[in-house]
Amino acid sequence: MSSVPAALLVVAAVSYHPAAQAPEAAVVIDKAADYVAAYTRDFVGIVAEESYRQEVRGAPETDRRGFATEGARQTRDLKADVLIVRAPAGDRWLQFRDVFEVDGRPVRDRVERLAKLFLDPSATAQQQVQSIAAESARYNIGAVARTLNLPVMALMVLEPENRPWFSFTARKRRDSPQGGLWELEYREQRGNTMIRTSLGKTMPARGKVVVEGATGRILSTELATDDDSLRAQIEVTYGDEPTVGLYMPREMREKYVTRGGATTEGRATYTKFRRYQVTVDQTLKK
Question: Where are the chain's structural domains?
Answer without folding.
Answer: 8-43+53-76+149-275
